[in-house]
Specification:
- This protein has one domain: Rossmann fold (3-Layer(aba) Sandwich).
- It contains six helices and ten strands.
- The strands form two sheets. Strands 3-9-8-4-10 form a five-stranded mixed beta barrel. It has a two-stranded antiparallel sheet with strand order 5-6.
- Helix 4 links the parallel strand 8 and strand 9.
- Helix 1 runs parallel beside helix 6 and helix 2 packs parallel to helix 5.
- The longest helix has 17 residues.
Length: about 220
């Protein structure tokens, strides 16, 4: 089996490399960079250059919900581009709201990007709560913006890459999934409350379980 595991940064990818070091499968690891543009570019290059049975994006994330505390690991199954649109006096208006793009233009479904986890692999991720994510080029750190995002998208987590990874994999028709470990609450920016080491440790454990369960 050929697997692709990507992450935005070297520290996040290192967790995957440690977890899958003894895998009997052919695993390609790649740092795709921080943010949507870098992720889209490098993921596209990877998928055009090789074929994979499953692509997995891994990393850390911020949580909007006490249901997903720092250190927990979740499985994003639906993603939105959270700041792709227009800022109006009344607030954020998406590309779909502005009728610049139809909400069911491939690969979108009702304005969202939905994970394509094949049934043969779905059981590998069932231990990790399915969540809705938003992907932002500018991470949230001000209460007014956080409130607006929650009202608009009802997200469980936010990242800076996931929707781009979803978009490319769906476009290229490559089966994929994602795992994110919570490093911080989405709140008024307070890095003292973050716990990236715990998130990376638990991410490594989750990847080891998933890859180790592959037949």
């Amino acid at each position: 089996m050929k697997l692709l595991i990507t992450a935005a940064t070297g520290n996040e990818l290192l967790a995957a490399q440690k977890a899958a070091a003894t895998s009997a499968h052919a695993v390609t690891f790649s740092v795709t960079g921080i943010g949507m543009v870098s992720t889209a570019y490098h993921t596209t290059k990877l998928l055009l250059a090789g074929s994979y049975d499953l692509a997995i994006n891994v990393g850390i994330a911020g949580s909007f919900s006490g249901q997903f505390p720092v250190g927990s690991v979740v499985c994003p199954v639906k993603e939105y581009f959270g700041d792709s649109g227009v800022q109006t006096p009344a607030g954020f208006s998406s590309l779909f709201d502005e009728q610049l793009l139809h909400e069911n233009t491939f690969p979108f479904v009702d304005g969202a990007l939905k994970a394509d986890i094949p049934p043969a692999f779905a059981g590998l991720f069932k231990e990790y709560p399915p969540v809705t994510g938003i992907t932002l080029q500018m991470a949230s750190g001000a209460q007014q913006r956080i409130d607006e995002l929650q009202q608009r998208f009802h997200p469980g987590i936010e990242t800076m890459e996931s929707a781009a990874f979803f978009y490319v994999c769906l476009s290229q028709k490559v089966p994929f999934a994602a795992l994110r470990a919570i490093s911080n609450k989405v709140e008024i920016r307070n890095k003292a409350a973050w716990n990236i080491p715990l998130a990376l440790q638990n991410l490594e454990t989750a990847i080891r379980r998933v890859v180790g369960s592959l037949q």
